[in-house]
Amino acid sequence: MSRQQFLDTLNAYAEDGRTVQLWLRDDDAIAPTAALSRLLDLSKRWNAPMTIAAIPADAKIELARLLIDLPLISVAVHGWDHTNHAPASEKKQELGLHRGEEAVLARLAEGLERIAGLFGDRAVPLLVPPWNRIAPALLGHLPSLGYVALSVFGPEREETPVKLVNTHVDIIDWKGTRGGRPMDILYAEASAHLGTGNTQSTNLGVLTHHLVHDDAAWDFLDDFFALTAGHPACQWVPVSALMHAR
Fold it and tell me: 13, 78, 173, 232: which could join 53 in a potential S-S bond, CB 3.0 to 4.6 Å?
């Protein structure tokens, strides 16, 4: 039922002349894998742009070579080394203030430089914090480091010092199976997010982690692309379009 609810929502958008701008962010890439190739094949099959959040400290030249001929793929900065610096009493966080603001900002500058150097015109100045967490005190410094936008998980807040381009549907069940979540639940969440839209264009970001995808995760992605790729209300867009949108 939830899949039909999502389709009904898209149909309502189309009837009203509204557009859903879709984008996909895949986290934790460092090197070519069979799972990453499977995800990239979906991009090519459906002519859908995707964003790969690569870990700068560990990203390999082989990954850059894999992506060089794939113009639909953008590469964002996934922190520095995806290391937790928070104590056991707190949620995991690389980009907190546990090491001091200066140390974190230095790593973020280095991360952007390395991703740009490694991936060239595939790189985008988008920061994707590991675990989707970053200390608020750091946000105002991101533009001076060269970042144009920030991507975490959840609804975009207004009046932030840096543009937010968030994801809204996470396909992985991190607290349970650590595989794909049930398709009906994912479609219900997508419908709920789109139901809040009251403008001519609403963004819907899908969050994936190719390294932990199981059959349920791949089944959802196959179905989601098949449903949205040709729908008149849907437009798969590169993240750069969302980063620079007013």
Answer: 78
